[in-house]
Amino acid sequence: xxxxxxxxxxxxxxxxxxxxxxxxxxxxxxxxxxxxxxxxxxxxxxxxxxxxxxxxxxxxxxxxxxxxxxxxxxxxxxxxxxxxxxxxxxxxxxxxxxxxxxxxxxxxxxxxxxxxxxxxxxxxxxxxxxxxxxxxxxxxxxxxxxxxxxxxxxxxxxxxxxxxxxxxxxxxxxxxxxxxxxxxxxxxxxxxxxxxxxxxxxxxxxxxxxxxxxxxxxxxxxxxxxxxxxxxxxxxxxxxxxxxxxxxxxxxxxxxxxxxxxxxxxxxxxxxxxxxxxxxxxxxxxxxxxxxxxxxxxxxxxxxxxxxxxxxxxxxxxxxxxxxxxxxxxxxxxxxxxxxxxxxxxxxxxxxxxxxxxxxxxxxxxxxxxxxxxxxxxxxxxxxxxxxxxxxxxxxxxxxxxxxxxxxxxxxxxxxxxxxxxxxxxxxxxxxxxxxxxxxxxxxxxxxxxxxxxxxxxxxx
Length: 461
Ligand code: SF4
Known about the structure:
Elements: E1 10-15, H1 19-34, E2 38-39, E3 48-53, H2 58-74, E4 78-82, H3 88-94, E5 100-101, H4 107-117, E6 146-150, E7 152-153, H5 164-168, E8 172-173, H6 176-188, E9 193-197, E10 212-215, E11 218-221, H7 224-231, E12 243-246, H8 259-263, E13 270-272, H9 280-286, H10 295-305, E14 310-317, H11 324-337, E15 341-346, H12 364-387, E16 393-401, E17 412-416, E18 427-429, E19 441-449, E20 454-458
Parallel strand pairs: 1-2, 1-3, 3-4, 4-5, 6-9, 9-12, 13-14, 14-15, 18-20
Antiparallel strand pairs: 7-8, 10-11, 16-17, 16-19, 17-18, 19-20
The chain binds iron/sulfur cluster.
The site of iron/sulfur cluster (SF4) has 10 residues, from helix 5.
């Protein structure tokens, strides 16, 4: 007689916020699966729903509260975790039915809360579910061909507009051997692009005095340069180097050391540096790290070493005390900096941030007007930079392959080395072969460009 296995409890997950929060969600789900839980793709099938919240801006908090409300209405058994976890009282006041509230990065607490809400299966059958092992890869919430690699948690700075250090604490770097082991496993399992993330990637290892660890018989420091060099040595099962992208880098002088690695092809020629402003007075009021670095000179030097380097950044307009002169300074600076990709935000006070007490609040209408001017200026620069790529052949990683159209032509969407997933542009390909798959890296001849994207065809088939 067949013996029925006891049903596995099922967990649903709603993951909001930045890639760092997504990595937390992946870790929580990987741990829960090892504990015998199954994942539910919908509310109805879940025994309990986890909502991983974002609390960075008031608008993100509103979105998180709406997600909690929806999960309660649709399922009723809800555990809240993530950045809004430190506002447990406010969450409980609004949603008394919430089962538990845990904070960002508190993996043990959230796993315990799930165990309480939906106890893991007991007995000989469920206990035979394989624990986390090489055969059972970690759960990923991104497509198989790219992965976020989180190298540290928290931040030692105190930027006036930011409450991340209050939410996530001081910098705690992961051991370099643990980071490299994770990267090696991801690449062996099909990752073709690693996205290195943290709150401040250039500060990696500062808290551990750049402690060295043994890695494949050699000592490697917990330092951004060593990390970059080692990641550049990894090889996919096909023998190719993965793309390795550095995000959230501050322009400290030691960043100069990674540019030659880009020129050598060990690192993707791309830097995501959130400059936030250019006016020395505003940067000082923002208390930004590395704000005294001579950034324009450094950018020119980087481009001399690695002409392919793409620089993405974000800026805040309308910070308290920002005058028209400060803003004009920023626009002039942008003209000189010639950044490839720019995101902008209108300053928004965040509960608990020091900037809220600063004098010189900028009226909303002025913020809007400056935002529009900044976007127009940076879009013109970005458009010209993309147009300059027409006629060139660029490596492109494929994200998605479409269905044949009425003429049997198949299109595909990919990204060049200058484009990170989710935040930058795409390369749209025409007439791709049926055999093309996501994660393939192909040479593409660029035929057209617009303000955000490139268009072309595969030139090496
Ligand atoms: S560097 Fe500044 S903006 Fe970034 S997390 Fe730290 S305090 Fe926040």
